[in-house]
Structures
1.
Amino acid sequence: MNLASGMLFASDSRTNAGVDHVSTFRKMQFFQQPDERLLVMLSAGNLATTQSVVSLLRQRANASSGKGERNILNVPSMYDAACLVGDTLREIVERDGPTLSQSKIEVGCSFLLGGQIRGEAPRLFNIYPQGNFIEATPDTPYFQIGEAKYGKPIIDRVVNYHTPVEDAAKCALISFDSTMKSNLSVGLPIDMLVYDKDDFGPGIHQRITEQDPYFQQLHTGWGQALREAFAALPPMRWKE
Amino acid sequence: MNLASGMLFASDSRTNAGVDHVSTFRKMQFFQQPDERLLVMLSAGNLATTQSVVSLLRQRANASSGKGERNILNVPSMYDAACLVGDTLREIVERDGPTLSQSKIEVGCSFLLGGQIRGEAPRLFNIYPQGNFIEATPDTPYFQIGEAKYGKPIIDRVVNYHTPVEDAAKCALISFDSTMKSNLSVGLPIDMLVYDKDDFGPGIHQRITEQDPYFQQLHTGWGQALREAFAALPPMRWKE
C-alpha cells in the first residue's frame, strides 16, 4: 500500500508444491542503500522462479558494484527498478519455462515492488508474470498478488489513500486472517514493513507469528465482532 | 446449502463475455414434479454450455414422458440426477469443445444440483466441469461455484449445518454483497430459493433487486457494522 501516511508491505510465508509439500519461506526481500534508497519486493507464484530473480538481482548488484552496470542498487528511479525486475523475470522464464511446461508446471510469478529512491516520491509497482507492470496511484493505492480474493473485500471497504498506516496495517492483518480461515495456501508468520516517506532507512520490519498478542487480539476480536454484527442484522423473511 | 433447517439456493445473474458484453441471465433452474420431486440447478461458467445442458435436460424430459427413458424428472435418486447432469455436460463439451478450444474459449461450466426426490432426504451435489461430482454432508453443508472466493470467509465464519435457514439466507446475501463490492463479474438481481424438507412443492423463490428493502438494509447495515467493528479494534503499534 502506498498511502499518504506511508508505505505498508505485508506478506505471508506459506509455500506449497501440492498439499503434501508445505513449507515456510519469507516472501519479502529488501534492497537497501542507506540514506539513498529502500526497495521492498514481495513475491507470489513459483518459488524457484522468485528465488532466482532475487538471487540474480543481488548477485549482479554485488558483482557490478563500482563498475557502473545497471543494477537494483544503482538504477536512478523506481520505474527503472521495475523494468529491471521485469527483465530479470523474463530471463528466468525463458531459461526455465520450456522444461517446466513439459511437466505442465507453471513457471510464472508476480512481484510487488515498492519503496523510494532519493529524488522521487515513494512508488509502488505490480509486476506481472509477463514482466510488464502497473503503478499504484492515489485512486488505487494498493495491490495484492497471490491468493488475493478472500481478503480483498475488507481492504476495499476500509482502506483509501488517506487511511493512517497504523489502520492500514490492522486491515492487512485482518485481510490475511480472513484468507487463512478459508484457504490453506496462506499461512503465518506474516512479515510486515512500514516505511515513512523520505526516511531512506531500513523501515520498521516486524514478523507476526501465531503467538503475537496483537494478532491474537485481532483474530479473536474480529471474528467476534463479525458474528455480533451478523446477529444484529435481521434474518431474511420470505414473501409467501 | 443443505442444512438441518432446510435447503437454500442463491445465484446472481451477471454474465459477461468480456467487459464490453455484460448481460443478465438467471442462473437458477427448476425441475419439478409436484408432490414427488424438486430439483434446483445453479450454474457457472460458459453460458452457451450451461444453457445447452438445461435445454437438453428439459427437452428430453418432455420427449420421453411416458416412454420410461431415463430423464431428470424420472430418475429414482438425486445421485442418478447428478449422473445425468454430468453425462449431459460431457455430451455438450464433446460437441462444442473442439471448435471453442480452437478459439481459446473455455467450454467448461459447473453446476450445483440440489433438492429432494420422494424416498430420499434432501441432497446437494457440486458437479465439476469434467462431469464428476461431490456431495455435501453435515461437515461441509454448502458449496459455491463461480466467483466464490471473495464471499467465502463470511460463510465459513457463520454458517454450519445447524444454522437456521433464515440466517443462512442473510449470510448468502452478505456474501454476494461483499463479492459485488470487489468484482464486477457478479451482479444483481439475486435469485434465492428456500426448500423445506419433505415439502415436495416448488419452494419459495424470491428475486432480490437493487430496490429490495431487505437487501438495502443488509448492504448498508453490514458495511457500517464492519467499519465500526474495524474502528473498535486497536491500530497496529510497531516495536521499534
2.
Amino acid sequence: MTRRPTAEGRRPANQGPKAAARNRTALIAAAREIFAEHGLSAPLSAIARRAGVGQGVLYRHFPDRNAVAAAVLEENVRQIEQAAAAEDATLSVVLGVVTWHMTESAAFVSLVHAETANGRVGTHAYARDLSERVERALRGLLPDGHRLGAANDLMLAVAMVSGAVTGPTREEQEHRALAAWRLLGVEVGPVRPHGG
Amino acid sequence: MTRRPTAEGRRPANQGPKAAARNRTALIAAAREIFAEHGLSAPLSAIARRAGVGQGVLYRHFPDRNAVAAAVLEENVRQIEQAAAAEDATLSVVLGVVTWHMTESAAFVSLVHAETANGRVGTHAYARDLSERVERALRGLLPDGHRLGAANDLMLAVAMVSGAVTGPTREEQEHRALAAWRLLGVEVGPVRPHGG
C-alpha cells in the first residue's frame, strides 16, 4: 500500500466501485462501534471519522441516521447468515455470533423492541423480516430433540436473551447474555463476530 | 351517588384532597390503558378524557408526559409490592401480577430498556431503583431450592420475559410472556392485576 494517512489521520478519499464498497463496509463497522459506545444519537461525524472518510462520503452512502442504523442491522443479519452457512457451523457457534451482535448492538435491539411495542408498524414489519432471516439461519442447525425445537421457542429464546442484555458496560452485557442462555439450558459458543 | 356525568360524558370536577387522590388514581389507570393502546406518544388529552377529568386537572398532577409515565411505573411497582405483602402471597401468584404489568406496560418496559441501553444514566438509576423494589418483593417469596434462587437469576428471568413481551395484540404479548416463563421452567399464576 502506497497510500498514506492525510494530516487529519484520514485515508485519502477512495474512488471507484471497489473503493465505494470498502467505504460502505468501513462506515457500517464504525457505526456499530460508535452507536454501541455512545447510543443511537451519537453524531454521524464521529462515524465518518472512525471510518476514516469524510462526511460527504457518509451521506453519499446513507441519506440519514435511520439508513445508517438499518444498514448495521442488515449487516448483523448477513453475518449471522454467513456464520450459519459455514461448513462446520453448529447451533452453539452461531448462537455465539448472534449473542455478539446482540451485545454489540444492544441499543438497536432495544430500539427496535421499543418501536415494535409502541406499535410503529413499519418498524415492526422490518424487524419481523430480519427476525425471520435469523430464524431460518438458526433453524437449519437445530439438532433433533433440541430444547428449543418446538414451534416458536427458538426466536422466543433469542428475544428473551436480548431482553437480558442490559448494563453499563459491554462486559456486563455479555455476562448477562451468557447467564440468560444458561438459565434457558442452552449451550452457546464463544461470543464473537463471524470470522472474528 | 347524586353526581351525574356532564354533557361531554365527564364527571364534574372533583375538589378537596380526597377528590385529588381519586383523580390521580383515575389518571394513572387511564394513562396505563391509553399508553398500552396507543404507545407512549398518545395525546395526554386522551388520558384526561379516559379518566373523566379536564386537562387542567391532569396538568395539576403531572407537569409533563414523563411525569405521567413515571407515575404509571411507580404504581405498577407499588401494586407488585402489595401483592407480595398479601398474607396468602406465593411466588407464582405475584409473578402473575408482574407479568400482567409487563404486558400492560410493554411499551414502557421497552422504553426504559432502550434508554438504559442507550446509556441515559438518569433513567438507568430510576429503572434500577424500581427493579430493586420488585426484586425485594419477589425474593421474600422464593421457596428454598427454587430454580431462580441463585444471586441475580430472579431479575434476570424477569428481564428475559420482558424481552419476550412483543406482538401486535395484548393477547399475543401475554401468550409470549407465558411461553417465556415455561421455557424458563418457572410456574406462573393467572396473569392479572393485584386484586383483579
